[in-house]
Amino acid sequence: LAPWIPVVGLEIHAQISSKSKLFSGSQVQFAAPPNSLVSFFDASLPGTLPVLNRRCVEAAVMTGLALNCSINKKSLFDRKHYFYADLPAGYQITQQRVPIAVNGSLSYSLCIDNKMSQMVTKTVRIKQIQLEQDSGKSLHDDTRSQTLVDLNRAGVGLMEVVMEPDMCCGEEAAAAVRELQLILQTLGSSQAVMAEGQLRVDANVSVHHPGEPYGVRTEVKNINSLRFLAKAIDYEIQRQIEELENGGTILNETRAFDSKLGCTVPMRDKEGKQDYRFMPEPNLPPLILYDAKSLPANMNHQQVINIDWIHERLPDLPSVKREKLVEQYGILPEHSFTLLNEDGLAEFFESVVKQTQMKPKKVIGWILNDLLSYLKEHSLTVKESPVSSFLLADLLNLLEKKEISSTAAKQVLAKLWKGEGKTPLEIVKEQKLELLQDQEELEQICQAVIDGQENE
Amino acid sequence: QKVSVEELDHLEHLALVDFRDLEGVERLQKAIQFADQLHEVNTDGVEPMDSVLEDRCLYLREDDVTEGNCTKDLLQNAREKVEEYFVAPPGNIPLPKLEEGDTFLQGS
User: What cellular-component terms does GO give this entry (chain A) (predicted)?
Assistant: First the structure.
């Protein structure tokens, strides 16, 4: 049987972290009373017009720059028409013709064979980033055959990041999205929390034989975690392969991932091809961005967005942070990945290093093996750790000064987890874990043991 | 209030899309031919214009919360509501598929 090449592309919608919405002044907030964060424009009442939020443009420019994109100094807004109860205008304002950023790339890393020590770097091309409106939320009430609509989310700014089909499996897709998530969180352009719907991923999946053209692709939606993303993609790849090997065909359809059953199913409302009737948004002139060279002399600062100014102020991206950690502390690359993968862990590590004489290369073991595994066991975040960096540094100092053995240190750490407010030194004294340094005392103990043996 | 067949025929006449009538089809074809004259203009290298406002400045608003919090006002015109949610029919109801030759008109 000829081998199959799976092809995976992603469309990622990231909610922009801003106080107000993309085209109106209503608030952006998760979990508020229904329809309380809705302006007349968001409800699409006649006579209202869109007014672009400066912060949303800046967020998109930052993200484009971080993903190595070309920023389009002139981009356009369009209307994408379709009917759904949570889209009151009957169209979404998006950027279909000329988006704000194009042609970027994202590098991400994978462990080969689940071994952290063997990491490989891959790249996925970013086709474009566009600004667009989010829709409201529909709650389906099947028992009463109705849909309840909450427009709080309608009009919230989104950045759609389109990744080219350069990935081949669920693992690659999940790794790419994870790296994007870290980048967005570092930039602050999106909080990118998947569980709160701030980061939504749709996967485009197809399979083909080597040398042949790409197969028909399906779109998989309704994925709300990285784990499910990998599962859904891998399931869909298998489903398509089995279907084709059994002589069937793949329909160009939209499927939803059912997390309970672990499979993809056709989506009820997305049958048949949609005709979105794209047209230019007549109420918004082109969005013009400037750089240091093209900066107009006598324009109001507030009305000008300078790409170079934003570029100069970009924070260190995760990949740069990792390199710096490796260089500064002599830890392994895979350690730097784990440090950045856990919110607050890198800061915790650096804080401990500052407060202890123990070499960073040794400290990292305590952070990744002991601290992290305890946090995972008890489902705690670094912020919720009962052991502060101060306490851990204190403990490691005792170990470094050879006042206790490392076995004893682990015992003390276990006691510290209980959060009883005792210092490491207090616990050591309580449990009599001090290392004996007195030569004579040691000789006496050894002699007593030997004598004891002789008497048996 | 139903739309009568006479009114419908009238509308079809106005819209010139009565394909049951040969004269209507011819009239439509002539209208399309007339519009096709637009293709005779050479637009090579000319950027399409979407709006005469294309040179206007796109105003950028500061990211401040200035509106919202008007649930009552928004819901006052809703025919149906449930605990401050708008009520809509379940999902999208697709139009029934027509057999060939059928129209939606009654009595035709």
Answer: glutamyl-tRNA(Gln) amidotransferase complex; mitochondrion
